[in-house]
Specification:
With 252 residues, this protein is mostly beta strands. The protein has two domains: 46 residues, SH3 type barrels, CATH 2.30.30; 196 residues, Fumarylacetoacetase-like, C-terminal domain (Fumarylacetoacetate hydrolase, domain 2). The strands form three sheets. Strands 1, 2, 3, 4, 5, 6, 7, 8, 11, 12, 14 and 17 form a twelve-stranded mixed sheet that branches. The protein has a five-stranded mixed sheet with strand order 9-20-19-15-16, with no helix packed on it. A three-stranded antiparallel sheet has the order 13-10-18.
Length: 252
């Protein structure tokens, strides 16, 4: 199943997606819901970010091939940081460059959406706390990151957290093709089989540090090939079984 959060007639709603069709749901995707007979075409609605999390957790250097690309050792435990939830935008929204003299990069990432409150979860139980998966783009201001020596400011600028378009629930996250394209040219291409720490390990590890709430999201890291984006570009994150997250880049 794929969930979509959308707006129509100035109201935010949830639905399930089949092809180009949305069936509205009543209830909560984090609990009980029913699928109604009210249908819309995807092209007739505004697709919203699929999550409005209390926190957006991100993981650094979590692909084996990316670590090799950078000449870095494989981490012995996940490197976690917080990306401001106010950075989140949805599909087709603009990534806004407020500092055009800075170097800004794309980072395609499989993103975990939490279903239930999770604290001190065991790895073998972790998938019970996962609603599904979506596409994410951990847009990063490398100039700020180099100045700070830390990722939070560089990755938390407004619009630097594109997420969407759907939450795919019936998905095995262990070997999914993940790509990033800029203006139609492939920049990143790998598989989640290259993850150093998989979904079970990440949900368990993060839940030991902080309580995860329904709708929270974990961005699982990016494969090799990260690179610059600039105003006028169109950036696409494609993940097998989920769909395409597309955003244009523009000046503030």
């Amino acid at each position: 199943m794929k969930f979509v959060r959308f707006s129509i007639d100035c109201k935010d709603r949830w639905g399930t997606v089949e092809g180009e069709d949305i069936a509205e749901i009543e209830g909560s995707v984090y609990g009980d819901f029913t699928v109604t007979r009210v249908h819309h075409n995807l092209s007739s609605v505004k697709i919203l970010p699929p999550v409005t999390p209390s926190k957006l957790v991100a993981i650094g250097l979590n692909y084996v091939d990316h670590a090799r690309e950078l000449g870095q050792p494989i981490p012995i435990e996940p490197f976690i940081f917080i990306k401001a939830s106010s950075a989140i935008i949805g599909p087709e929204d603009a990534i806004v460059i407020a500092f055009p003299d800075h170097e800004t990069h794309h980072e395609a990432e499989l993103t975990i959406v939490i279903k239930h409150r999770a604290k001190n979860v065991k790895p073998e139980d972790a998938l019970r706390y996962v609603l599904g998966y979506t596409c994410g783009n951990d847009v990063s201001d490398r100039t700020m990151q180099r100045i700070d020596g830390a990722p939070t400011r560089a990755k938390s600028l407004d619009t630097f957290g594109p997420i969407g378009p759907f939450i795919a629930t019936d998905l095995n996250p262990g070997n999914l093709r993940i790509e990033c394209l800029v203006n139609g040219q492939v920049r990143q291409s790998s598989s989640t089989a290259q993850l150093v720490f998989g979904v079970r390990a990440l949900v368990s590890f993060v839940s030991r540090m902080m309580t995860l709430m329904p709708g929270d999201a974990i961005m699982t890291g990016t494969p090799p090939g990260v690179g610059p984006i600039q105003p006028g570009d169109t950036v696409e994150v494609r993940i097998e079984g989920i769909g395409t997250l597309r955003n244009r880049v523009q000046l503030a």
